[in-house]
Design brief:
This protein is 31% helix and 24% strand. It has 475 residues and is α/β, with parallel strands linked by helices. It has a nine-stranded mixed β-sheet. The radius of gyration is 24 Å and the shape is globular.
Length: 475
């Protein structure tokens, strides 16, 4: 079955740890070129083909037959064990070498080498899977390409490094910016603004914090927005969904469709893809997995668990926002507000999770899943005392939602364009109380034992290793 063709853009993603391993090996300090290769899993998408680095292997200096400031070569038989691994597991091979002089472009020597090496790799593996070549310069920046079926080269559209900071590199040399981005480009610079304009972002949840996050990303100039919500507009949530009208509620339009239409009407150069299926549908997972970054704006425990799982499996940074507003009626018109607070979690693949940070347990995930799949059974088990009930209708105030949605988007911006005095390494979880006017910041903690085995696995069966996502049951 064909899983990739020359018309689908290819991206490459790795973790910050993998990138650091590459930098250390490729730049030993002697001014000579060095080489490594990456074995990659993937998201074989219909819109983007994402290569996910699984392993990095440096070519030992002592086996290189030639190492100079402008060339590196080695015996190809050194790669045979990993080529066999790529055949067995249907993986991609990416050759990576350094340019110590700082030239971020492929040389004629590189072109000659890749014209021989990449077709040989493709012939060896005999799978319709992209293989490619990447160069790295001393500051860690990378540029890459894959080989097409006709042996021409296709530039890798995005190379991303996921860590406490987020790094994205694109081959586009066009320095022009849309006029509407001029004001925030003055603050964050043209480089950051151009990065935003080429990113794919998925926002899951289009209601309280979701519509506000979508509006901010839209106005910041994100290139492509995938917005997911299977709920329809109701009059009771018109107080917090931007751009929604009473007519939308009367017509029971999907929230995602309403927000997508508002984005289109703005006339800004943004591609928006609304999804009106539940996140717990294979089609939704496969689409969201093609994005560069995830924003979770849900209050369902099983939905947040699924996003955290997806971000590990497909090497995606995940920003999660939660709001809690406790109001206690006291018989008066005003009532009493006990607490207004919220949190923003930044979650990296292979690091801590919402589970290991104590936001919920796997037992609570199971209960939320039962409520979604079989409400009657959930109600019965709640009545019988086997599980604790989940509150469906919670207080919601747009000004509170806006505050925490903005904190999430600003946390995202700060990881692309580091403007905070405190290092991003020390900021993984931000908790804020509006009631006590306090902000608490927590650093990264121990990796999650439940999700860490999934890091970078990409397309597996069942999706995300979750039996509920077996696709046969959705046909």
């Amino acid at each position: 079955m064909t899983i990739w063709n020359d018309d689908i853009p290819v991206t490459l993603t790795m973790t910050q740890t993998q990138h650091q391993v590459l930098v250390k090996h490729l730049f030993p300090g002697d001014g000579k070129e060095s080489a490594a290769f990456a074995i990659c899993n993937r998201r074989a998408g219909n819109l983007r083909h994402r290569l996910l680095v699984h392993e990095i292997h440096g070519i030992p200096f002592e086996i290189c037959t030639d190492r100079s400031p402008h060339r590196v070569s080695w015996p190809t038989e050194y790669l045979e064990p990993w080529l066999e691994m790529a055949i067995e597991q249907d993986m991609s091979i990416i050759k990576i070498h350094s340019h110590p002089g700082g030239m971020l472009n492929f040389s004629e020597i590189d072109n000659e080498s890749d014209r021989h090496f990449l077709p040989a790799v493709r012939g060896w593996i005999e799978s319709d899977t992209p293989h490619g070549s990447v160069i790295m310069i001393p500051d860690g920046q990378m540029l890459g390409r894959v080989i097409r079926n006709d042996n021409s080269f296709l530039p890798i559209s995005t190379i991303s490094v996921i860590g406490s900071n987020l790094q994205f590199w694109h081959p586009d040399n066009d320095n022009s910016l849309p006029d509407y981005t001029e004001s925030h480009a003055q603050a964050f610079g043209a480089g950051t603004t151009k990065i935003l304009g080429q990113l794919w972002a998925a926002v899951i949840g289009c209601s309280g914090t979701g519509s506000i996050s979508i509006e901010q990303l839209h106005r910041l100039g994100i290139g492509t927005l995938v917005i997911v919500d299977d709920d329809r507009v109701e009059e009771r949530n018109l107080n917090r969904i931007l751009n929604a009208t009473r007519e939308d509620a009367e017509n029971r339009l999907y929230k995602a469709d309403v927000l997508a239409e508002a984005i289109r009407k703005s006339g800004l150069d943004i591609t928006v893809i609304p999804v009106t299926k539940n996140l717990w549908h294979p089609d939704t997972v496969r689409l969201v997995a093609q994005c560069d970054v995830l924003f979770g704006c849900m209050d369902t425990i099983d939905g947040r668990f699924l996003l955290n799982t997806l971000s590990n499996c497909y090497l995606q940074p995940y920003f999660d926002v939660g709001v809690r507003l406790d109001a206690i009626p006291d018989g008066t018109e005003k009532g009493r507000i006990r607490e207004v607070c919220g949190s923003v979690h930044y979650l990296q693949p292979g690091k801590s999770s919402l589970i290991s940070r104590g936001l919920f347990t796997m037992k609570e995930v199971a209960a939320a899943g039962l409520k979604r799949r079989d409400p009657d059974a959930y109600q019965q088990q709640t009545k019988d005392g086997y599980i604790r009930g989940i509150n469906e209708l919670r207080p919601a105030v747009i000004s509170v939602n806006m505050s925490f949605a903005s904190r999430m988007i600003n946390d995202f911006l700060s990881r692309i364009h580091c403007y905070r005095e405190q290092s991003n390494d020390q900021i993984a979880w931000i908790e804020e109380s509006h009631s006590s006017l306090e902000i608490f910041v927590e650093p990264e903690s121990e990796p999650c034992k439940i999700l860490s085995f999934l890091v970078g696995k990409g397309d597996i069966v069942p999706l995300l290793n979750l039996p509920e996502l077996f696709e046969e049951q959705f046909k």
